[in-house]
Write a sequence for this structure.
């Protein structure tokens, strides 16, 4: 892996992006690479990761794993420390997005979402904080830099800030993302770790595109588009731009915020 420090708003920064094989995570990894970052892209989708790494061989390396499994989540963070000497930025993005009302949902649906969007976010944040602070398993361990602070950006959602129809299983997991960002921000502010979240409105990712083929999906999409005051859905690149800002030194006095990227949805 080439580790030249290039130009850009994340020049030379060591970054982990979870769920980077598609959608918002992929757009974040691509934007970070363009901004000079050294990106460890992680996902359960090995093929998607391979395509991303082939496209950006200078700046992207990969780890295949499941964020809900402690060993895998730890491996994702360790890879950044081992490959680039430290961890500067985590984007905790991996998530699953089921669309169902509570009467359709079973306990297994709840557990599946909470495993990825809840527990997976907790685990990757935990190991990232350890790496950034020089704590257990972090860069304070063998061969590390001792930890020198960093920035975490969690992927919340408009459904992690407000109620929506059809989101009774997914939405509460996104409240975890908003809540984790605020609690970690306060807990780690005096040790140089900033933790923020973005709350995207509905974004034109592959996942949202597939809703057109799911029962009730087309009706949902038509209704949700109208609920965004700008009258359109957002793009992955627009979310990546907000994530970049919060991850960069330009946001050096910003921690504990949940930044809507939603065409005005939450302002209503
Ligand atoms: N698309 C939207 O409209 C929207 C809106 C608000 C928030 N979000 C949030 O943004 C994030 C990304 O969503 P997206 O729309 O890009 O979805 P997506 O399905 O396109 O991408 C999610 C990625 O996460 C990966 N993933 C799933 N489970 C995993 C696991 N256990 N371990 C590792 N990787 C795993 C998938 O393989 C996929 O590549 C999610 O956290 C989602 O809740 C999305």
């Amino acid at each position: 892996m080439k580790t030249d420090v290039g130009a850009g708003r994340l020049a030379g920064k060591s970054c982990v992006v979870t769920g980077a094989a598609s959608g918002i995570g992929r757009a974040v990894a691509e934007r970070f690479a363009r901004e000079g970052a050294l990106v460890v892209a992680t996902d359960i989708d090995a093929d998607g990761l391979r395509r991303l790494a082939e496209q950006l061989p200078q700046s992207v390396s990969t780890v295949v794993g499941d964020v809900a499994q402690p060993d895998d989540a730890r491996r994702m963070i360790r890879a950044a420390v081992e490959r680039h000497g430290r961890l500067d930025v985590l984007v905790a993005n991996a998530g699953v997005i089921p669309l169902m009302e509570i009467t359709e949902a079973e306990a297994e649906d709840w557990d599946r979402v909470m495993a990825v969007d809840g527990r997976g976010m907790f685990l990757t944040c935990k190991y990232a904080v350890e790496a950034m602070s020089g704590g257990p398993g972090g860069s304070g361990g063998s061969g590390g830099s001792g930890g020198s602070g960093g920035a975490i950006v969690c992927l919340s959602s408009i459904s992690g800030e407000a109620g929506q129809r059809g989101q009774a299983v997914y939405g509460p997991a996104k409240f975890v993302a908003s809540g984790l960002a605020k609690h970690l921000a306060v807990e780690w502010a005096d040790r140089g770790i900033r933790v923020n979240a973005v709350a995207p409105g509905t974004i034109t990712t592959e996942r949202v595109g597939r809703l057109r083929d799911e029962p009730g999906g087309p009706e949902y999409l038509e209704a949700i588009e109208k609920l965004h005051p700008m009258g359109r859905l957002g793009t992955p690149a627009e979310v990546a731009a907000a994530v970049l800002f919060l991850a960069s030194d330009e946001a050096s006095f910003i921690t504990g915020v949940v930044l809507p990227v939603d065409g005005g949805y939450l302002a209503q």
